[in-house]
């Protein structure tokens, strides 16, 4: 724990009580320092304890505090555990169709650090969120499904629209490794043409809209492996063309000549499997969406590794 | 709540060590539980990624096609890979490729006990693809690094890793031979480079 961190937390607490109590930031910091450094209390608990002391002194209830309940104001990138009560300031990036009557609204929230799915329950009876608007959301709870985090708006959530703009960050990551697999559902695929439905068809059928006249698209679902970790990467049409040199028209021609779409993925496998790539882009669940792709050809410096080997 | 099974990492290992990885085990009694070979440097491997020179392909099948490929690493040690009707893509690759050629192989380690009691270790390929020399060189350096990391972890004084302990128990071998494989492989790259500069 650094001193500046404690100082920041002390300033936060001070701000909450400056109207009611004659207490200085330094006094608060000292209390925090004692708890954290001497008693080894986790910071969050220390903060809670110190806040409680001042609540008593001021004859206030926890709910009286600004930012009710003293939730942590979180940035989306930092959401890393389920069932945490947090506050967010975020923009509604996208609203999706609710798939169940129990859900009033579902979509994507974004702040400078990234995006996250949100769900608002019908029974919570909350005002509607508008796409593109920025809100202060207090008392939302985090959730996790298959390693992917989301937030739920609930009965106790307060929603306040803010008159500000947020530049939504794309939480890009960079991964590299050998391309060890191109999974099924890659190559020349067909997507459902229904509005806002881009599901990939299986044997000409959309899981939502049944048998439809699909629209051709290109994509690769690949796996980069560096010998320590695996990263699943999705290449969209443009990225797939960059990676393989096969564009949509060429892919359609190939499929037409062979009377089989699978030749496209086979050709792509031959051109890319076993090569090393560096890919950067935003994450979507467990996938990295490949915005930029670089073929890595030159090996790392063998001499440096050799010196290391001889030193063991 | 069901969780997606995590994909097994493809380990990087030179042929000398891979061919010594004769001990296999499972982590659970489930019939479908993944089988691991134990690398002598103390890591489990359910998948490997190797790049080397395909020096020979041969259909060794009796009733149906069963292709053997020999892939040689810079130390001259050989990975054996076998592909039959259940690995159609890899089998047709072995049928079509003309040795010698650099290839990348992703696959599962398999062990086979011969009549005279030796255990042979081979790769059942998921994919085989031709690559260029730069990719091969990159693999050599990467595999050298990974192997060194394993040797270091294995010989550290505070080593408590279960696979390191398992390797100490299962294999009565010095790790020097694998360290030498690393050094020789790297030295061969340097020699190549010197030769290229001289030309």
Structural summary, described in words:
The complex is a heterodimer of chains A (312) and B (199). Chain A has 312 residues and is an alpha+beta fold. Chain A folds into three domains: 3-67; 71-162, OB fold (Dihydrolipoamide Acetyltransferase, E2P) (Beta Barrel); 172-296, Nucleic acid-binding proteins (OB fold (Dihydrolipoamide Acetyltransferase, E2P), Beta Barrel). Chain A has helices spanning 3-17, 25-38, 43-58, 237-244, 248-258, 262-272, 302-311, and strands at residues 72-73, 85-96, 103-111, 114-121, 134-145, 148-153, 158-162, 172-182, 187-191, 205-206, 210-211, 215-225, 230-235, 276-284, 287-289, 292-296. A five-stranded mixed β-barrel of chain A has the order 2-3-4-6-5. Chain A is flat. Chain B is 35% helix and 30% strand. In chain B, strands 6-5-4-7-8 form a five-stranded antiparallel beta sheet. A three-stranded antiparallel beta sheet of chain B has the order 1-2-3. Chain B has a single domain, classed as OB fold (Dihydrolipoamide Acetyltransferase, E2P). The model of chain B has no long low-confidence stretch (mean pLDDT 90). In chain B, helix 3 (133-155) packs antiparallel against helix 5. With 199 residues, chain B is α+β, with helices and mostly antiparallel strands. Chain B contains five helices and eight strands; from the N terminus they run αββββββαββααα. The chains are: A alpha+beta (312), B alpha+beta (199). At the A-B interface, strand 8, helix 6 and helix 7 of A face strand 7, strand 8, helix 3 and helix 5 of B.
């Amino acid at each position: 724990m650094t001193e500046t961190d404690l100082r920041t937390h002390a300033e936060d607490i001070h701000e909450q009580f400056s109207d009611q109590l004659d207490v200085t930031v330094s006094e608060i910091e000292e209390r925090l320092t004692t708890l954290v450094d001497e008693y080894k209390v986790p910071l969050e608990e220390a903060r809670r304890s110190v806040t409680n002391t001042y609540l008593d002194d001021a004859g206030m209830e926890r709910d009286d505090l600004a930012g009710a309940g003293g939730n942590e104001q979180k940035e989306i990138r930092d959401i890393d555990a389920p069932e945490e009560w947090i506050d967010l300031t975020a923009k509604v990036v996208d609203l999706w169709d609710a798939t169940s009557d129990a859900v009033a609204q579902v979509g994507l929230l974004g702040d400078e650090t990234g995006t996250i799915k949100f769900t608002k329950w019908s029974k919570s009876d909350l005002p509607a969120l508008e796409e593109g608007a920025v809100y202060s959301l207090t008392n939302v709870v985090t959730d996790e499904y298959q390693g992917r985090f989301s937030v739920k708006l609930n009965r106790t959530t307060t929603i306040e629209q803010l008159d500000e703009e947020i530049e939504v960050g794309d939480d890009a990551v960079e991964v590299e490794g050998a391309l060890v697999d191109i999974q099924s559902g890659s190559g020349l695929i067909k997507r459902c043409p229904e509005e806002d439905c881009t599901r990939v068809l299986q044997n000409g059928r959309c899981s939502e809209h049944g048998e439809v006249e699909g629209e051709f698209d290109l994509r690769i679902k690949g796996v980069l492996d560096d010998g320590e970790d695996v990263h699943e990467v999705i290449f969209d049409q443009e990225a797939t063309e960059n990676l393989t040199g096969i564009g949509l028209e060429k892919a359609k021609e190939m499929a037409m000549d062979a009377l089989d779409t699978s030749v496209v993925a086979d050709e792509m496998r031959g051109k890319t499997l076993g090569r090393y790539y560096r890919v950067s882009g935003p994450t979507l669940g467990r996938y990295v969406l490949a915005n930029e792709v670089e073929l890595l050809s030159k090996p790392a410096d063998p001499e440096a590794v050799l010196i290391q080997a001889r030193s063991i | 709540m069901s969780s997606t099974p995590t994909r097994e990492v493809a380990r990087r290992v030179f042929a000398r060590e891979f061919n010594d990885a004769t001990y296999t085990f499972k982590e659970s009694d489930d019939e479908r539980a993944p089988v691991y070979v134990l690398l002598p440097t103390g890591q489990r491997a359910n998948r490997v990624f190797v790049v080397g020179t395909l020096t020979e392909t041969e259909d060794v099948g009796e009733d149906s096609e069963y292709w053997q490929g020999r892939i040689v690493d810079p130390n001259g040690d050989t990975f054996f890979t076998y592909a039959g009707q259940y690995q159609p893509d890899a089998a047709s690759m072995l049928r079509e490729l003309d040795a010698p050629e650099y290839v990348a192989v992703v696959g599962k380690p398999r062990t086979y006990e011969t009549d005279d009691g030796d255990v042979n270790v081979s790769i059942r390929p998921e994919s085989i693809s031709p690559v260029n020399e730069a990719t091969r060189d990159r693999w050599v350096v990467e595999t050298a690094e990974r192997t060194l990391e394993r040797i270091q972890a294995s010989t550290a004084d505070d080593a408590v890793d279960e696979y390191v302990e398992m390797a100490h128990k299962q294999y009565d071998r010095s790790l020097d031979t694998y360290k030498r494989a690393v050094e020789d492989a790297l030295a061969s790259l340097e020699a190549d480079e010197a030769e290229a500069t001289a030309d």
